[in-house]
């Protein structure tokens, strides 16, 4: 197995993270040819299904098109939705991966950031199990920052932002309960990597 410069095992197998539970989603596509070498943005989201309920397995089912739309009244509001993210981090910090990071996941929707539109084309999406505006667990921050560091080993990451920053007015996640200051401190990346609104 390949090792990193610090002697630790290389965390990647192609675009799949070795520490993640792999559950392949059909909701993905090729990245545009001009974007494949410029995957420089991490987008942080939050999701729970039904909203505010955790550990149900419904997020994994949604991302793999296997959700029973009749299992909960809320699911009628999203019936037929076909979406995915590259990663999902549960409340306990467990890491799931649904899409090869070399591929385009369907997580951002209509979006624009750092002078570019269509953020799905050149970003990696990470969903945190949670409800926008509410707080997240220490285990999630630990898993998130470790994952971000690993992503930056393989891709030229220059930016990290929330869904709310790339689709303002349309999306509000991860929301006010997400501790950007903590993430900045744990990652120790330059301030310009973070959205202007949250820079310490």
Question: If you had to describe this structure to a student in words, what would you say it looks like?
Answer:
A hairpin with a 2-residue loop joins β9 and β10. The protein has one domain: Lysozyme-like, CATH 3.40.80. The protein is 18% helix and 19% strand. It has 200 residues and is of the alpha/beta class. It contains four helices and twelve strands.
Helix content: 10-25%
Number of H/I helices: 4
Overall tally of domains: 1
Mean pLDDT: 95
Q: How much beta, percentage-wise? A: 15-25%
Structural class: alpha/beta
The largest sheet has its strands arranged as 3-7-6-11-5-12
**Number of distinct beta strands:** 12
Question: Biggest sheet, open or closed, and with what strands and sense?
Answer: 6 strands, mixed
What is the compact description of this entry?
This protein is of the alpha/beta class and about 200 residues long. It contains four helices and twelve strands. The chain has a single domain, classed as Peptidoglycan recognition protein-like (Lysozyme-like), CATH 3.40.80.
Topology:
Blueprint: E1 12-13, E2 16-17, E3 21-22, E4 28-29, E5 41-47, H1 58-63, E6 87-89, E7 95-97, E8 104-105, E9 112-113, E10 116-117, E11 123-129, H2 138-154, E12 159-162, H3 163-166, H4 180-187
Parallel strand pairs: 3-7, 5-11, 5-12, 6-11
Antiparallel strand pairs: 1-2, 4-8, 6-7, 9-10
Looking at this protein, list some descriptive labels.
two-stranded antiparallel ribbon, 200 residues, 4 helices, 6-stranded mixed beta sheet, alpha/beta, Lysozyme-like
